[in-house]
């Protein structure tokens, strides 16, 4: 079992977060360092460290995170305008918290590819 992260503390309400959705499997809350007008994190309540650690038995749980993203998008009114879902994996993917989380970004046209700026600087 991977080590507890700050997201476990949010699930257990040990540290504050602006929670926007919760069910028996998942929790969604505002990212503390938003990269778009709407930037939410959708996490499974079961700790899975990285995408590489998703067990075959957890495929439905991971799919559930995308379903939650779409429900929030519809509820918040940006489903038709569009949004981006991203799950980073390990260092090159930019993962800093080892409890998988689906970033849900919306509220403005998002550039693509996302690494364009870094390539320009190189
Ligand atoms: P990643 O870099 O893909 O692992 O994403 C981790 C995300 O968690 C970053 O976007 C952080 O801003 C966000 N984050 C870290 N700590 C907190 C916190 N206490 N509450 C909300 N978001 C957080």
Radius of gyration using CA atoms only:
15 Å
Largest sheet: 5 strands, antiparallel
- What is the general shape? globular
Strand residue percentage: 15-25%
* CATH architecture label: 2-Layer Sandwich
Low-pLDDT segments, ≥5 res:
none
Within the largest sheet, what's the order of strands? 1-2-3-5-4
Secondary-structure element string: HEEEHEHEH
User: What top-tier CATH class fits best?
Assistant: Alpha Beta
The unique ligands bound to this protein are: adenosine monophosphate
Ordered list of secondary-structure elements with their pairings:
Blueprint: H1 6-11, E1 19-22, E2 26-30, E3 38-44, H2 59-76, E4 83-86, H3 90-93, E5 102-106, H4 116-121
Antiparallel strand pairs: 1-2, 2-3, 3-5, 4-5
Adenosine monophosphate is lined by residues 6, 17, 31-33, 41, 88, 94-97.
Model description:
By secondary structure, the chain is α+β, with helices and mostly antiparallel strands. The chain has a single domain (6-121), classed as HIT-like (HIT family, subunit A, 2-Layer Sandwich), CATH 3.30.428. The chain is 28% helix and 20% strand. The chain is built from four helices and five strands; from the N terminus they run H-E-E-E-H-E-H-E-H. A five-stranded antiparallel β-sheet has the order 1-2-3-5-4, covered by helices on one side. The longest helix has 18 residues, at 59-76. It is globular, with a radius of gyration of 15 Å. It starts with 5 loop residues before the first helix and ends with a helix. The mean pLDDT is 95. Bound molecules: adenosine monophosphate.
């Amino acid at each position: 079992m991977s080590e507890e992260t700050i997201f476990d503390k949010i699930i257990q309400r040990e540290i504050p977060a602006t929670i926007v959705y919760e069910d028996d499997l998942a929790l969604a809350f505002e990212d503390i360092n938003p990269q778009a007008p709407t930037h939410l994190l959708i996490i499974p309540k079961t700790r899975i460290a990285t995408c590489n650690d998703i067990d075959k038995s957890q495929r439905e749980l991971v799919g559930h995170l995308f379903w939650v993203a779409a429900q929030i998008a519809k509820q918040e009114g940006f489903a038709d305008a569009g949004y981006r879902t991203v799950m980073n994996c390990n260092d090159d993917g930019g993962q800093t918290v080892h409890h998988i989380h689906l970033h849900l970004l919306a509220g403005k046209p998002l550039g693509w590819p996302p690494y364009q700026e870094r390539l320009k600087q190189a």
